[in-house]
Design goal:
It contains 1 helix and 12 strands. The protein is mainly β. An 8-stranded antiparallel barrel has the order 1-3-4-5-6-8-9-12.
Length: 261
């Protein structure tokens, strides 16, 4: 919240500076606003030990800003609290402990399925191309990048409690619990973001906006070697293998609704 307040103040200062430039143009140079974005997110997995298992419904919100450098072209940015996720299914026996210390004959969690919920401070940067106003409507397309910085990461896990490494259950049970996985998620998310939509002029320079965006992740959002999950290996001492190898990219489709001033 503190960061959002600082950004809001910065946008206001920039808008005052841009106001003088607006007077000499037939279009508004600087615009800012608010938006919300429900999204459907999933993870594209490249691993022999687990696989993608569906989508998760998440939610984002934040501030928008646009700087127009020509009548129909502008640079878009802002700041968002972005939440993404996805569901995965573990194909081989793996054990989870938040501190990473697996007990050979002790109380371990045999992990079967996981639903991710990762939150980022996201800064989108895009080129926005719009049509001239048609009635009260203006249509646009945009192309750019999402740069996200992790602020939190949690998981809803399904599996079996109190499983010793020497005798893993053949099928994980139905125990469901929430785990803190901040240490198992990488700090940075980079993605290609493309989309389109429309603006409806409400009055003067105020417009209602709605659109759809697809964010295609470029980088592995999980730690390459898990700090919290160990793989079962019957050929290893005590049946405990090494750290789980992780490779997953985060994608989502979002519906943006907001107001620009």
């Amino acid at each position: 919240m503190k960061n959002l307040k600082l950004v809001a103040i910065s946008f206001l200062l920039v808008s005052f500076y841009a106001k003088a430039q607006d007077e000499g143009n037939s279009y508004k140079t600087f615009r800012f606003g608010l938006s919300v974005q429900p999204n459907l997110s999933w993870m594209k997995v490249d691993s022999k030990d687990f696989e993608s298992n569906g989508i998760s419904a998440k939610f984002s919100y934040g501030l928008l800003a646009e700087y127009a450098f020509a009548q129909n072209y502008s640079l878009g940015t802002g700041i968002q609290i972005l939440t993404t996720g996805g569901r995965v299914n573990y194909k081989t026996p793996v054990y989870f402990q938040e501190d990473g210390r697996i007990e050979i004959n002790g109380s371990n969690f045999l992990l079967g399925k996981r639903t991710y919920g990762t939150q980022y401070l996201n800064i989108p940067i895009s080129l926005k191309m719009r049509t001239n106003e048609i009635g009260y409507m203006t249509y646009f397309a945009q192309f750019g990048l999402d740069a996200g910085f992790k602020t939190n990461a949690k998981a809803k896990d399904t599996g079996s409690d109190n499983v010793p490494v020497t005798n893993p259950a053949p099928i994980p049970g139905n125990t469901t619990t929430k785990h803190n996985i901040t240490t198992d998620v990488n700090f940075f998310r980079l993605a290609l973001n493309i989309g389109g939509g429309a603006e409806y002029n409400l009055s003067g320079n105020t417009s209602f906006i709605f659109g759809i965006n697809y964010s295609n992740g470029f980088v592995n959002v999980l730690k390459k070697n898990s700090a919290q999950i160990k793989v079962s290996d019957n050929n290893a001492p005590f049946g405990l293998g090494g750290e789980l190898k992780q490779n997953a990219r985060s994608h989502f489709i979002g519906l943006t609704v907001g107001v620009l001033f």
